[in-house]
Records
---
Amino acid sequence: MKISNCNGEFDCHSWQELEQLIKKSSLNPPDDLWISENTEYPCLAILINGNYACVHYFLDDEGDMWQSVGDGDKDVTFVINGGKSDLPADSVIPLEKAIECARQFYDTLDKPTCLEWREL
C-alpha cells in the first residue's frame, strides 16, 4: 500500500505497518492520510485529530466519492490539503472506527461497510 501524510510518502507492506502509522499519526495531530494501492484510485483518505477522524472514500477521479457519517457532538478541526478546516460533527467518527475502515480497505480496496456513508 502507498501511504501519504503530512510527513511524506511511505510504503506499507503489511496491515500491522499501516495500523501503526495511523496510530502514530493520532499522537501528533492533526494529520491527513491517503491510502491507495499502486494506482491513484480507489483511495481512502483519513483525516485525524487525536481520537477523532473523518474518512473519505474516492472510487475514481470522476467525482464518485463518499464521506463518513458520524454522530459526534462537536465540530473538529482537521488538516485538509495543507490548511486547517473545521468539519461538522455529523462527519466525525472515533479513530478506532477509522482504523476498522482502513483494515477493510486494506483487505479489499472496496468502500468499507463498517460505517454509514454520505455521497458527495
Note: The chain has a mean pLDDT of 93.
---
Amino acid sequence: MTPYLVPPEEIDRFWSFLEHGLETVKLTDETVEWTLESVNNTAKNGAAYTVLGVKDDVAVGFFMGYPQPDGAFFVWIAHLHLGYDLGEGIDMLASFAKDLGCTRLIFGTNRRGWERIARKYGFRPTYWEKAL
C-alpha cells in the first residue's frame, strides 16, 4: 500500500471517496464528535494531513491525522475498505508518520473491536499507542 498525501487544495477532487469512508465510520461508531463539514474544513485548511492508501492504482482507504508536540502522530480518522490488509495499512501509516519525524502512533476510540485487534498490531492502551 502506498500513501498519497492529498494537498488541501485537492480535497474537493477526492471528497466523494473520503465522504463514503467517513459515513462508514459513522455507521460503526455513533460516538464520533466530528461532522462531515468539520472534517472537510479541517482537511481544506491543512490542520490535518489527509492521506489515501493506494493499492494497484486504486484508493482503498485513508487516514487523517497530525503530529503532536511530544512526537506522537495522532490518527484522528481512518478507514480501510473491507478485504484489504489492516496490517499493511498500519505499516503505511507508521511509515508516513516516521517520515515526519514522529516516534509513536496514537488514536482514541470507543469501538470495542479495537480492544482485541489493537494489541495484535503492536498498540498498547492508554489511548492506543504504538512506538515507531
Note: Residues 103 and 132 are 5 Å apart (CA to CA).
---
Amino acid sequence: LAGVLLAIPVLVAGLLVVGALVLLWRAFCEFYVAVFRLSDDLHALRLQSEADAAAAARRPPAPPLG
C-alpha cells in the first residue's frame, strides 16, 4: 500500500518533468528556426541594399536646379 501511495506522486512528478522538457525542446527548436529566418531576411536586405547602391552608381547625376 505504501508503494502505491508513493508511486502516484512520483508518476505525476515524472509526467510534469517530461512536459517541461518537451516545452524546453520546442522553445529551442523555435529559436533555432527564428535564427535562420532572421539570417535569410538579413541576407535579402543586404542584397537589395547592394543592388540599390549599384543602381545609384550607374545613374548620371541630376542637373543642378536653378
Note: Helices lie at 2-58.
---
Amino acid sequence: MIDTFNLTLTDLDISGANLQIETPNYNLATGEMEATYDLFRDTRTGKIVNAKKAYLNHPKFTFEIRPNHFLNPSLIESRPDLTTIKRVNLSVPKYARGKNTEAVSVGEFKEVLTDLEKTLKDNGIKTNIQNAEVSRVDIFKMLKTDYEFMNYVEVLSLLDFKRLDKNRDYGTTLLSYNNQRQFAIYDKIEEEIIKAKREKNSNYNTRQKHDRMRFEYRLLKSKSVKSQIGFTTVKEYHKNYDQVERAFYEYTQATFGKEPENVTSLLIEDFRQGLIEYKERGLKNPIEQFILHHVSLPQIEQQIGTDQFFKIIKDVFNRKTAGDWKKKIKTAIKEATLSKMDFATKQSYVSLYREIKTKLLMRVV
C-alpha cells in the first residue's frame, strides 16, 4: 500500500561517507560565488564539510543533506541539528521487488527499512532508522478494471475530492491537489509503456489492454502525514501499519461515498447548462450545435437516457421541440445500433462508477 516513503533522519553519525559533495558555482550574471553551508561533521576526520549539498544516489534510494532555509533563526543556536535537512527518499515496493506495481506485505516493509539502515551504515551513514521522521507518504491501490482506462475518464472526472481545490487532466492521469496533499488516478499500463519506450525496452508488450488503474493518495509533507495517519516516526509505522491503510480507505470512502445516482444528476446538470448556454448564444439550431460539439446521440442514451434528455429540452425550450427531438434521437440510435457495434463499454456511467467504487473500497482481510 505504501509506495513513496520519504524520511527525515533525526540522528546520524557520518564517518568517511560515500557521499557526492556539490560545490558552489559562479553566478554568471553577478560574478558572485553561490553560498555554501556547514552540512555535517565527518567524525573520522573531525572536519566540517562546507558545500551546497551532499548526496548519495543509491540504486534503491537517494540520501541528501542540504541547508534548512526555513529554519527560524532563533533556533539555530539551541538546535544546530535543525540547520540542515537529512532526507532519504525511496519507493518501498521498488526497494523490495524492483517494481512499484504491487503493494508489499507488512513483513516486507519491515525488511526494507532494516536493509535501508544497514545499507546507509555500509556507506558511512550511521542512524537509527526507527527514529526517522516520515516527511512524505504515497499510499496506493491497483485495480484491474473490466474495461480500458479511457472508458472511465468521464465518470472519474466528476468526482469531488474533499479539500483538494486544484485539478489537472493529463489525458491518462487525473490529478487533484493542494500544497499538502494529492490524489491521482492514472493508467498504469500507459505509464509502463512510456517507460519502456524511454528505456528502449523492446520486450514490453505495447498492445496489451489498458485495464490496470492506479489510485494514489499522496501526503506531501510531515504535517499532512500527521493529520491523516496520526503518527510520523518509522517505529510507529512498524507498530500501527494498518492505520496507514485506514487513512487511504477513509479518504476514498469520502470521495466515492455518494450514491452512483448522484453521478448521473451531475451529468444531467451538465447537459442542462450546456443547452442553456447554446440557446442564450442565439445560435441557429442550438440543440444540433450542442450535440455536434459535445456529445454523440448514442452517448446521450448511455449517459443520462433519452427520456431525461427530452425532459431537459422541454424545460429549456418547449414541449414541441422536445417531441420533435424524441423522434430524431430514437431513429438515430436505432440506425447506429443496426449499422455497427458500439465500440465502447455498453455500460452506463452509473455501472462504471459502481465497479470502481466496489473494487477500490474492497479491503483484503
Note: The mean pLDDT is 82.
